[in-house]
Give the backbone structure.
Amino acid sequence: MWDWIQTQLLEPFASLVVGGFAFLLTNLFTIIGFVLALVIIRRAFTEKRTPSNFFAWLLVVLFSPLIGVPLYFMFGGRKSRKNTRIKLEVAREAQALIDDEEGSACSTNIFACEGRGMVTLGNHVELLTDGETAFARLCTEIENAEHTIHIATYILSKDQTGEHIVNLLEKRASEGITVRLLLDSLGSWNQTRAARLKIRLAGGEVAMFMPVLPTQTHTSSNLRNHRKIAIFDNYRAITGGQNIDNRFLGAKPDPQRFADFSIVTQGPAVADLNRTFIADWAFAAKYPPSDFKELLQFRPEEAGNSTIEIIASGPDVHNDPLWEQILRVIQEFKQRLTIITPYFIPDEVIFRSLIVKAHTGRHIRLVLPLHSNQKLADIARHHSLKELKKAGVEILFYTPRMLHAKMILADSQLAMTGSANIDMRSLFVNYEIAQIHYSKQDIELLEQWSNNLMKDCITYDEALKDPTFMPSKFMQDLVQLIAPLL
């Protein structure tokens, strides 16, 4: 009887248990990956994503969860609740800064009536037209600062330009000037250890924004601080897209230096730039925002007659104000629109809005580098460019070198500058800063810079004459699938 029980019941049952356990063990990672994929899909539904971005992640996570799940946790996050709470606290601390000046701006400029940032009057603006001019001004401002230097940059390189700026900051910190340097952990990856130590030993402060490794933070490694802001004595600021790197800035002309510019701003608008910097600093350096209450409440006196709007956009901001502002400009301009950007990977809404506007006969000009420093971005842009060309958009390629400038000009009534590219990373993932100019004299300066740039451009049709310009159809289709993730 026992033999029958053992052979007919216990052995099959034991084989079933062992087989089931072996199956679970063999497929454990796949099962965990599938469960996590479901969790990620649910999370993605709750985030405000573009459809193309959502489906790109959906394909990666579902078809290859062992690869897609870790990638999502590292690079997929878009909005940070923790950051939002800190930034809201900073906003409350700085409430004394907020004066409703939009009405006076609206009386002279239709684009300023519904802006998402703070519109301020009484500013003064200067244009730094190249990397040499910008480097000289940055050095001068550091040397002449009387009490405070705040600098946020995506890249601080260990090259001649970076070392010179670090030495200046070390010197000023040793002289008792308050120096705060905020670096992005990815952009300045593995280049700044000695520089940080040097500035700290001199009495300055340095903070790294958002560690690269996801185990070090509760948020995604994808959330990078792409802002470039330098503020001196809480009154003068330099903004734009230029990093502290030989490719962007330098004492001597370099034929390979990226074509770019920066903006010097003085006046009330600097308060909004300073608030953005302090919010980022408080988060990265783990300070309570209340430590900066007096600084946040400081409002610079008027310095000129320029009207400026500052827009901070990123994972810490509700909605996507920079994207919304760009979209509004595209939809509302009446005659001429110029977009200058190093990388062009628009979301579907901006892409279709440009096509619709071009079909109405409005003149749209898109200016890009013939070859950027990002090969994948160059391949990813071709699908959009072909369709925009068919719709009547004028496409120009800057040929001498890499074009890194970011500018939008609309009807000689608005100019937008800052750190953001026209790609989905800048518009929906990165921390970015934009400066919108509404005054005639400032817009004329930027129009003159863009007109000089176009002297060295070729048309889309001329670019196509080079057989190596257009990538293969296979490469275009392949990169198009992952373009929303770039």
